[in-house]
Specification:
It is built from 9 helices and no strands. The chain is mostly helical. The chain is globular, with a radius of gyration of 17 Å.
Length: 172
């Protein structure tokens, strides 16, 4: 993802380090007691641990759909795509109104991150890359389901922004 989005060598290095540390703050007492501090505490803990600002910022931004940095954007996209692909692969796609793993929110996050930064990302290729590193087999059908699921979120976001239905369908 970092390569496809054009991150330079130092940004790629920061993204890899941030990915390694991504959810470490979730096991702390502070975040267990105050879940709204996830990411914020990750940033503080990371800086106190001697990591650089790019890594620390990415840990905070990974939860936001308007990440400011390229590193935070890549980390957020990777996290959301990993969740979507992995859970679809094991048959845990949302059913009607039930979405216990917040996969709709993850797909909306993917779309909003891409729109916020006006990024061009080949989602089909990205889903294939993410599928290759899953601990379970991901069928081509599951990959297509993830792509369609994200596409439906994009369709709804564009409709909510006032684009006519026929224009959205023609574009997609």
């Amino acid at each position: 993802l970092a390569e496809e989005l054009g991150l330079d060598a130092s940004q790629k290095e920061a993204a890899l380090r941030a990915a390694h540390l991504a959810k470490s703050d979730l096991v702390t007492e502070m975040v267990m007691d105050f879940t709204s501090l996830q990411g914020i505490m990750g940033r503080h803990y990371t800086l106190l641990g001697g990591e650089n600002e790019a890594v620390a910022a990415a840990l905070e931004e990974q939860y936001r759909n308007d990440a400011a940095s390229n590193v935070g954007t890549v980390l957020g996209l990777a996290d959301r795509l990993d969740s979507l692909v992995g859970l679809f692969a094991i048959g845990k796609a949302p059913k009607s109104s039930a979405d216990p793993f917040a996969l709709r929110r993850a797909a909306i996050g993917v779309v909003e991150l891409l729109l916020h930064h006006s990024l061009r990302l080949n989602l089909r290729d990205s889903i294939t890359v993410v599928s290759a590193v899953q601990p379970v087999a991901v069928t081509p059908e599951a990959q297509t389901e993830v792509l369609d699921f994200i596409r439906r979120r994009l369709e709804q976001i564009l409709a909510d922004r006032g684009f006519r239905h026929d224009v959205v369908n023609a574009s997609l």
